[in-house]
Amino acid sequence: MSEAIYYKVSYVVEGGGHPGAIINVDEKPEIGQEVEFDGRVFLITDVTELMPPLGDFGFLHAACRFLRLVEKR
Amino acid sequence: MINLLRKVQLFNGLTQGELELLSAISRERSYAPGDLVIQQNTTGDEVFIVAEGSIDVFISGLAAEQPLVVLGIGQVFGEMALIAQGYRSASGRAGNDGCRLYVIKYAPFNEICNFHAHVGYKIMRNLAQDLAFKLRHRNLATM
């Protein structure tokens, strides 16, 4: 995979209980990291290339598992 | 605004000057959690870019209007307005934390694309790629 500056990531939640999210990030997501969207925290369990990179963008798929709700601040 | 537009894949490959053209026709709008941003089956001439927060995309008639996808920072929605000015294919409402959006109207956008054809080409190429990405996401999410 060539070096991208930004990543467009398709987060898909295991088990289908949540529709997942598409988010742009500055750093490549890694297995074992936590990601937060839609008021929930998820654990990333797999990362693969969804489409070849183009220009400044990489296109990734990250599978993830629900961990907990985000605590209200 | 330029810094965010640079991170929007729809504008991938555009130069600083070209991003400035788009920045000049973009307007900022904020929505509280749950606010309806676009309504399915209505017409619209605006495309939206998520600058902060998220948008829940949903289709009327599906169980309890469950979101099909959550679109976070850097994502574009309402993009069909840039291709075919027909009815909106889905609704979008502000996510749990609300959202701040950049809004671009079709007419000035079209003017830029007509006057700078290479800008129009890059955006349309990126738009096709964005639609392919969303389709692949949907396929994976429903497996």
Characterize the structure shown.
The complex is a heterodimer of chains A (73) and B (143). Chain A has 73 residues and is mostly beta strands. Helix content of chain A is 0%, strand content 62%. Chain A contains no helices and five strands. Chain A has strands at 6-13, 21-25, 34-37, 40-54, 57-69. In chain A, strands 2-1-5-4-3 form a five-stranded mixed sheet, with no helix packed on it. Chain A is globular, with a radius of gyration of 12 Å. The N and C termini of chain A lie far apart (38 Å). The mean pLDDT of chain A is 91. Chain B has 143 residues and is of the alpha+beta class. Chain B is built from five helices and six strands; from the N terminus they run H-H-E-E-E-E-E-H-E-H-H. In chain B, strands 1, 2, 3, 4, 5 and 6 form a six-stranded antiparallel sheet that branches. The longest helix of chain B has 25 residues, at 117-141. In chain B, 38% of the residues are buried. The model of chain B has no long low-confidence stretch (mean pLDDT 90). At the A-B interface, strand 1, strand 2, strand 4 and strand 5 of A face strand 4, strand 6 and helix 5 of B. Strand 2 of chain A pairs parallel with strand 4 (69-71) of chain B, so a sheet runs across the interface.
Any chance you could write out the topology, listing elements then pairs?
The complex is a heterodimer of chains A (73) and B (143).
Chain A: E1 6-13, E2 21-25, E3 34-37, E4 40-54, E5 57-69
Parallel strand pairs in A: 1-5
Antiparallel strand pairs in A: 1-2, 3-4, 4-5
Chain B: H1 2-6, H2 16-24, E1 26-31, E2 36-38, E3 46-58, E4 69-71, E5 76-77, H3 80-83, E6 91-105, H4 106-115, H5 117-141
For this entry, give a set of tags.
A: 73 residues, mainly beta, globular, B: 143 residues, alpha+beta, six-stranded antiparallel beta sheet
